[in-house]
Write a structure and sequence with these properties.
mainly alpha; two-stranded antiparallel ribbon
Length: 160
């Protein structure tokens, strides 16, 4: 049943952060249960005051998935304590907006590159088709026999 839950969670993750989410899941499978998973609700409630945020950030220090957790939070635009770092809601939203803009720019660049490759391919194909047409025309011309010349009388044969 957890497989469906994981799919539902992945669908709500911003596209730019899905790879980071998968890396975090793999790291958690590899290293075991992190401190924040023992009571996620109380963990989230620590985001209200600075001392509690610093306390929770210190609890993250021994976690082996700290880097992947922080990377995911930055890419997803999350706020709170992630990977031992306190991320403000404004900073989280700004990072997420920057990531989405970078993703869109990358997508546009990839689309432009694909269009350029397609254009080159079409031009090359047209050039090959023109060359083939010229070659076919030349072959037809070579196969044609020159028109028969009118027979000229021999010099000794005179018409009377």
């Amino acid at each position: 049943m957890t497989h469906g839950l994981v799919e539902a969670v992945v669908l709500t993750i911003p596209p730019g952060a899905r790879t980071a989410w998968v890396r975090l899941l793999f790291k958690l499978d590899e290293t075991g249960t992190p401190a924040c998973s023992s009571d996620p609700d109380s963990w989230a409630n620590h985001a209200n005051n600075v001392e509690d945020q610093q306390y929770v950030a210190r609890l993250c220090q021994p976690c082996l998935a700290r880097v992947q957790c922080r990377d995911f939070a930055h890419l997803a635009g999350e706020a709170g304590v992630w990977g031992g770092e306190v991320i403000s809601p404004e900073a989280g939203r700004a990072r997420a907006a920057n990531q989405r803009a970078a993703t869109r720019a990358t997508d546009r660049a990839a689309a432009d590159q694909a269009r350029a490759k397609r254009r080159v391919y079409v031009e090359e194909r047209r050039a090959r088709e023109r060359a083939a047409k010229v070659a076919r025309t030349a072959a037809i011309v070579r196969r044609r026999k020159p028109p028969a010349e009118p027979a000229q009388p021999n010099q000794g044969d005179e018409l009377l």
